[in-house]
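Deliverable D5.2: sample structural annotation.
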Amino acid sequence: MADPCAFELDEVNAGPLGNPILRSIDIEIPLGGITVLAGPSGAGKSTFLRLLNRLDDPLSGEVRCLGRSLTDWNPIELRRRVGMVFQRAPLFAGSVIDNLRVASPDLTDSEAARVLERVGLAIDDLGQDAHSLSGGEAQRMCVGRALLTEPEILLADEPTAALDSAARDQLEELGRELADAGVTLVWVSHHTDQLRRIADFIVVLADGSVRATGTLAELERLDDPIVRQSIGAR
């Protein structure tokens, strides 16, 4: 029996009509652990990620999540089970707790404080305007908001790009805790040091195609210079 997959992409083309960013993508993303999407800038990593919870639809081909075509999912159900954290934290009008309650309307103050503590964010005043947060604080709040739906899968598009090293380390540790608890993570990273710290499985994209897939040890055995550069092989 084949190993279960979080996602399967069959002959997927995506991006602008007439000039797809992704072309003929055939790949399986494993269920469990942390899969890192790597590759040069412009390779299509963010486009790939957006396909996985239907923020974008492919031009052709099929994307399946947990064995079901994405077109068969109710979009609201899909996005609760497949959470997403963006590179730039999307904030809603209102306070910190107002933003958290977008994901969990009945959230109490004590529950809010616990989820913020989980992402390494200490906020004494939950009524503080969310737009007054620093970039790093806002990102951590948005990670906490994504976790409130208790997703089975979490998509992360360079979630530590705006964070200092201490906050980055906290989120990487949280990612590992989530993976160890059974949450599947698909994480876009441009930083080879980060990839080498967190990746259980790696997908290298280049020129809109899948260049290689495998564990770090498997990819380090390849001679392909783009793959080696993308994973920080020496």
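Annotation notes: Strands lie at 5-14, 22-30, 34-38, 60-65, 68-69, 82-85, 153-157, 184-188, 201-206, 209-214. The two ends are 36 Å apart (CA to CA).
The annotation will be released with the project's public dataset once the embargo ends.
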